[in-house]
Amino acid sequence: MAPRSTGKKAESSDKVSVICRALRRAIIEQALEPGAKLPEDSLGERFGVSRTIARHALGQLAAEGLVELRRNRIAVVATPSWQEARDAFDIRIELERLVVRQLAGKLTKPQIAELNAHVDAEDRARDGTDAVSIRLATEFHILLANMTNSPILVRYVSEVAYRCCLTLSLYSRPHSSECAINEHRSIIAALVKGDVDKVMGLMHSHLDSVANRALVAPAPQRGRDLLDILAPYAEESETGRVVKMPKVVRAR
Amino acid sequence: MAPRSTGKKAESSDKVSVICRALRRAIIEQALEPGAKLPEDSLGERFGVSRTIARHALGQLAAEGLVELRRNRIAVVATPSWQEARDAFDIRIELERLVVRQLAGKLTKPQIAELNAHVDAEDRARDGTDAVSIRLATEFHILLANMTNSPILVRYVSEVAYRCCLTLSLYSRPHSSECAINEHRSIIAALVKGDVDKVMGLMHSHLDSVANRALVAPAPQRGRDLLDILAPYAEESETGRVVKMPKVVRAR
DNA sequence: AGCGCCCGAATTGCATGCACTTTTGCCGGG
DNA sequence: CCCGGCAAAAGTGCATGCAATTCGGGCGCT
User: What is the CA A43 to C1' C30 distance in angstroms?
Assistant: First the structure.
């Protein structure tokens, strides 16, 4: 399809967006777990900028729902409730149905190649860490969204996909994402074939199963605030994995 | 329905969000037209804060797509292309179908009363300015979204509704929104009745007709960038209405 | 007169500084 | 031993200052 008007970037290519991208990636790769503290100082120091910039970046991330900002409090990586996770997936399903509806039968050859290459990369990453597979799976959907050339749709799909990714790290078990790869392949196939209804159905069930695979338990609930703010910190003896803040934040 | 977990506010209740709210409102009431300049100084002066804060607010608004931020350039109110407008409405339709799907048959009496009161207010505002009717019509949808108690859905519906509102001010004629009020009433009725399919259909056709009423002409297109950046400035002699920056920005 | 260049004003990009709030760790009392 | 309060430390909220960039208008050249 003819490239549609401006492919402009909402985010200026300055230091702020560099930090945003870095943090986003750290978050979806679970290098930063939900609840991890993000003090402006440490961020600024880590990225070689002043607090002003770090703060601005946190603001943007908060607008995307990846970070929680409370007045006079250290910013933390967002900890979505189970219900919010469910809602996010519901929205995501509708948005991505829109994506494939617009894309069905309209993909160019280079685009098809790019999609296939990406899925191949997903395949190759299967023996790597879970975090990477999750990121790649998420990026597949964003790649798809990008092909619509609708900046708004891209933005919303990206955001909601990142959020979903974040919740997966909270509520899902070790979980294998292998099956997802095949689902990605069938989506590509249906897109190429141009069967709109088929591909919308595929996308729907794909996301639905990802959600169901992950969001099995309605979670403890009831007075959650205390509980799941505590959760990431208390898990040292539970899973044998100690809380670490590898990149950005050094536990002082 | 039982209020769902945290009804938390993503935006801290500080000066930044005050400015955001004010600007949002000014934009959707067309006090600030697309293309209007928003220098940090003037904003800061007007709201009694430093540039730092004004800047941060502009960042948030940019993340919502209401403001365009280019490096080293004065921020301006966004001027969405016709295609972006169309895309925004497509997304909006899906999101709001989700809203009414969740709400059908689940409204409490106070909620129903609130909705009716709002539509009454819309009715009363019919002899007021167009700007106010548009704002109220938009707020009806946001009110609806709020009742889902899904923070994410609320955020997305609000954002996309604001964006649509913005495009209406760009591409629509004097336009009467009377008919929309009746459509709002039927939506409420169908929601109360609990007929899911009916209300989803109603919402769909409602938004579709709003979009079609507004986005009639595919617009000039072709090399748009120059054209519609210039448009808001050149329109002084065209529509007889001079570019004004009434509240926040004084043309120096 | 038209065109282009150059310089000053306007404006943004960013860091730093200070006041205020929250957090934390310590100490004394129960 | 545990609890409560207090004071230092850490962190945020925000303004201001300075360098760099863009904008705009006048001046000289053609």
Answer: 44
Does residue A102 belong to any structural domain of this protein?
A: yes
Reduced to 3 states, what is the DSSP secondary structure of residue A18? Answer: helix
* CATH number assigned to the domain comprising residue B50: 1.10.10.10
* Strands B67-68 and B75-77, sheet pairing: antiparallel
Distance A23 CA to C17 C1' (A): 27
Q: Which of residues 83-102 of A touch B (CB under 8 A)?
A: 83-84, 87-88, 90-91, 94-95, 97-98
Residues B54-93 have pLDDT tens digits of 999 999 999 999 999 999 999 999 999 889 999 999 999 9
Residues B53 and B98 in one domain: no
- Answer with the residue of higher pLDDT: B130 or A70: A70
Q: Do B6 and A151 count as a contact with CB atoms less than 8 A apart?
A: no
Q: What is residue B23's predicted lDDT score, i.e. its pLDDT?
A: 95
Pairwise pLDDT comparison (B9 vs A23), residue with the higher score: A23
In this structure, are B22 and B103 located in the same domain? no
Q: Tell me, what's the pLDDT at B30?
A: 86
A129 contacts: CB under 8 Å, gap ≥ 6 = none
CB of A239 within 8 Å of a chain B CB? The answer is no
User: Which range of residues forms the domain containing residue A113?
Assistant: 82-214
- pLDDT tens for A79-94 read 998 899 999 999 999 9
Query: In the A/B pair of chains, how many CB contacts fall below 8 A?
Result: 104
- How far apart CA B16 and CA B21 sit, in angstroms, is 9
**Domain membership flag for residue B210:** yes
Report the alpha-carbon distance of residue A100 to residue A147 in Å, rounded: 10
